[in-house]
Amino acid sequence: MSDWLRGRDERVALAFGGDAVRFGELARAVDAAVLPSGRGPVGCPVGTDAVDLVVTVLACLARGRPVVVGADQADADRVADALPDGAELALTTSGSTARHGEPPRLIARTSASWLASAGPLAQLADVGPADRVAVTGPLHVSMHLYAVLHALWLGAIATDRLDGASVVHATPTRFARLLERPDAPRAAIVAGAAMDDRLRARVAERDIRLTEYYGAAELSFVLAGSGGSLSAFPGVDVELRRSAGGDELWARSPYLALDVVGGEMRRDDRGFATVGDLAERAADGGIRVLGRGDAAITTAGATVPAESLEARLDAIAGVRAAAVIGEPHELLGERIAAILELDDGVSLESVVAAARAEFSPVELPRRWFVQELPRTDSGKIARGALRAAAAAGELGDGHP
């Protein structure tokens, strides 16, 4: 049986789309799966049925065939010669699907690099075989695929249904929305972006057991905890290193990917790697992640991390979600523009007034927009799409 399938044959393993598949049935389906001929990588495109995707992934791992999740067979064939030796899982990242016949950007890793983190996560989140684990996004997204494989490793049930679930994996945005449900699961594993204090307060009010973690497709788990500042995930060495934009977060662990196909994985000769996220030491000794360095905005000679500013905007009453981008400006270099989703009945003027009272003149956005925010399949704000819309003049005139 696969290293990932550890439940008893008679127990339900997957409950997706109203169908239930038991561990024994899943193991037999994996053994019987028909893969494309040859020894090359197998494509598993976006839109693949959840159970079929899991069967394909496990069958490829069992037979020594790399599986390219989020790409079709034509793309898998294109990247065959570019995959590093030992690659078993090749995962597309948000917004990286192939265009115009070009191969997608892929994170290539071993199955062992994910398996190594299964036990530590189970202990941190206090989850086990009795749990029913809900995922809140499509399985071609790496965090959701890992969540399902982790549930199978536990011997638990993985499902796309929130009702009856005891644990949920979600981004902060999707987690905030499910908190509106009276039947929200009693435990949550949240990642993909920083949580704000307002959301944590709502979690505490509902008495939900919370596990936060910071990671990246290239690095897997890096930090974990249950508050605003996090500590190193078990097995991870962390360093903060000075860069032009601030302190970059570097990690060394058995969980790192092998390489990035169609891109670059920044490593050093000591085994550390980074995706360029900025971080700072908190007063309690933990680490607070500020966001991607390449998302920082340089305005009036200062560097403002976009994700840190977004978290502070999210904390203003009436703001459902916020994104900030830098727009070219002749005098400032870049000016900060804020795009907001607001609760019903909340005025932009009240939000701007609250921001003026809270933010420094450098941090205060100079243009404001109210509209629905574009998001990736994993639920993250698609900042690149917003930049493109701003450059094309599609956001409108905004409010000063």
Describe the structure.
Keywords: Ligase. Helix 1 packs across helix 2 (50-63) and helix 4 crosses helix 5 (142-154). The protein is built from ten helices and 25 strands. It folds into two domains: 1-293, ANL, N-terminal domain (Rossmann fold), CATH 3.40.50; 296-391, ANL, C-terminal domain (GMP Synthetase, Chain A, domain 3). Helices cover 26% and strands 29% of the residues.
Tally of individual helices: 10
Gross morphology is globular
Give, in spatial order, the strands making up the sheet with the most strands. 2-1-8-7-9-10-11-12-13
Q: Characterize the largest beta sheet: strand count, sense, and whether it forms a barrel.
A: 9 strands, mixed
Quantity of strands, as a count:
25
Which value, in Å, is the CA radius of gyration? 21 Å
- What do the pLDDT scores average to? 90
- Structural class, by secondary structure, is alpha/beta
Beta content: 25-35%
Offer a quick outline of the entry.
The protein is an alpha/beta fold.
List the helices and strands and how they pair.
Blueprint: E1 12-16, E2 19-22, H1 23-32, E3 42-44, H2 50-63, E4 67-69, H3 73-79, E5 89-92, E6 106-109, H4 111-125, E7 132-135, H5 142-154, E8 157-159, E9 167-170, H6 172-178, E10 187-190, H7 197-205, E11 209-216, E12 220-225, E13 231-232, E14 237-243, E15 246-252, E16 259-261, E17 266-267, E18 273-274, E19 277-281, E20 287-292, E21 297-299, E22 302-304, H8 306-314, E23 319-329, E24 333-342, H9 348-358, E25 367-370, H10 383-391
Parallel strand pairs: 1-8, 3-4, 4-5, 7-8, 7-9, 9-10, 10-11, 24-25
Antiparallel strand pairs: 1-2, 5-6, 6-16, 11-12, 12-13, 14-15, 17-18, 19-20, 21-22, 23-24
Helix pairs in contact: 1-2, 4-5
